[in-house]
Write a structure and sequence with these properties.
4-stranded antiparallel β-sheet, 478 residues, 6-stranded parallel β-sheet, TIM Barrel, alpha/beta
Length: 478
């Protein structure tokens, strides 16, 4: 091994399903070798008890070697974050967001186009964002392009879509309903026009799928009746509004061979529509988020987290939560992301009028420990499935080269996870600007110990690391 190479000894990695293998990883900026310590594969149930784990695995140590025995996974990828640089940095920014990502085992993020000023709807605006981000990210990053209903012009749209695609955006984000003046929603006809253009790029169209007409009518009715409570908000944006929007997307997909990706899926009815599209062999994929897998509308009765839990779409009922877990298990939902969108909770999460409360949760720090704790360790997901949902599936879907797997020639992006100890979530320890979370006080039985990006340690639970915001690199996704 030459001087530029490093080695991590006696680490556990996935061997498929719930099997693990003990190995050493040799790396520089890339993974050079993954050397097995033994051909024996270990079943998780045999290692779940830390004392039994140590007794079993110590037989494979060379005398004097460090006992490690943590789980290594490919660096997690979060393909749905709002880090707000440039434009809305009073809520969050790339320094804080990327540091939060590193603490959560995330080595790559894909940032949304709508919470930048200007929004990433043209090559000019993308270049402005790139310039604003120089030296400001601890993790690697890519961008979504976007299509806004504001000044929708087919001639300019075609030019913008193809220029952004050539520059390597992940895909194009659109809304059926938007609350942003700088990035407005599309009509169904505009959505079809956009899909026809996006189809020619081979990129996906990511859709916020809630039906505007249905929601707007209900919202007006509730406001006129002075209904300013969380129940009115949730009733206005129920599962039916999600299902109707997805049904409209299915109609578009039957005419246009565009890849359609429904973001932050929240409901059983929405998932049923997704499965219908998939059964018709349409190019339909979807994602969900930890909030939809853990909370129901009963949690809005908890005054301590009520406002912190507000998102669009809102969390639903137990039936919906159970359906989403099943969708992760059977691969009808392709990955778990966060829709990370923080704010200053004192300014934007404090109103007694629920319509005025900012809708967003800063979650990039908690996704990895959440999914291992509440998914894998509670037997809702296999180890292999958990890793795929956090990293491998996302890398494959967006064609992020050399990431998402612990194999030679792949980037040395990995995080080390302790599955044998627990942590209580404390918002004061969060690295993003907005230090609040509906997960406050909840115990996760998983801890992220270290995170490496291209061989460089960017987070260690036991060390104060130098924050090298020049290290995170822009990824062109082609």
């Amino acid at each position: 091994m030459n001087e530029s190479q490093n080695i991590i000894k006696n680490i556990l990695i996935s061997a498929g399903e719930n099997k693990l293998k003990l190995c050493d990883i040799v790396y520089d900026s890339k993974i050079i070798e993954v050397n097995l310590k033994t051909e024996t594969l270990f079943d998780w149930v045999d290692l779940a008890n830390i004392h039994i784990r140590n007794a079993v695995l110590k037989n494979y140590l060379v005398e004097g070697e460090e006992k490690n025995f943590m789980l290594a996974i490919p660096g997690a990828i979060d393909s749905h974050v709002h880090f707000n640089t440039p434009g809305f940095e009073f809520r969050d920014d790339f320094e804080h967001g990327s540091k939060s990502a590193a603490r959560g085992g995330v080595t790559t993020v894909i940032d949304m186009p709508c919470t930048s000023i200007p929004p990433v709807t043209s090559l000019e605006n993308l270049n402005a964002k790139l310039n604003a981000l120089k030296g400001r990210s601890l993790v690697d990053y890519a961008f979504w392009g976007g299509i806004s209903g504001r000044n929708f012009n087919e001639t300019k749209l075609e030019k913008n879509i193809f220029e952004l695609a050539e520059t390597g955006v992940a895909g194009f984000k659109v809304y059926f309903i938007s609350g942003m003046e700088s990035f407005t929603d599309l009509t169904e006809k505009q959505m079809e026009i956009a899909a026809r253009l996006i189809e020619r790029t081979g990129k996906p169209m990511a859709v916020h799928a809630e039906d505007k007409k249905l929601i707007s009518v209900r919202e007006l009715k509730f406001k006129n009746a002075n209904r300013n409570d969380w129940k009115a908000y949730c009733e206005s944006r129920d599962a039916r509004s999600e299902a109707i929007a997805i049904d409209k997307l299915i109609s578009i997909a039957r005419m246009v061979n565009c890849k359609i990706h429904v973001v932050h899926l929240s409901s059983y009815l929405g998932l049923e529509q997704i499965k219908k599209a998939q059964s018709e062999k349409l190019f339909f994929t979807t994602e969900t988020c930890p909030q939809y897998l853990h909370f129901t509308q009963k949690d809005f009765e908890n005054q301590a987290i009520k406002n912190f839990l507000k998102t669009a779409p809102p969390v639903k009922c137990e039936k919906d939560m159970d359906a989403l877990w099943e969708g992760l298990k059977n691969n009808s939902i392709l990955f778990v992301v966060t829709d990370h969108a923080g704010c200053d909770p004192n300014l934007e999460k404090s109103s007694q009028n629920f319509w005025e409360v900012y809708g967003g949760i800063p979650g990039v720090e908690h996704r990895v420990p959440f999914l291992f704790s509440e998914g894998f360790l509670k037997n809702k997901l296999t180890l292999e499935n958990t890793i795929n949902l956090l990293s491998t599936n996302i890398a494959d879907y967006f064609k992020i080269s050399n990431k998402g797997k612990l194999l030679p020639k792949y980037d040395a992006d990995f995080c080390f996870i302790d599955l044998w100890n627990s942590q209580v979530i404390n918002s004061s320890q969060m690295q993003c600007k907005g230090k609040y979370t509906p997960f406050e006080g909840i115990t996760f039985n998983t801890i992220v110990l270290q995170t490496f990006l291209r061989g460089k340690k960017i987070y260690d639970i036991h060390e104060q690391l130098f924050d090298d915001y020049n290290y995170g690199a822009f990824l062109e996704l082609n």
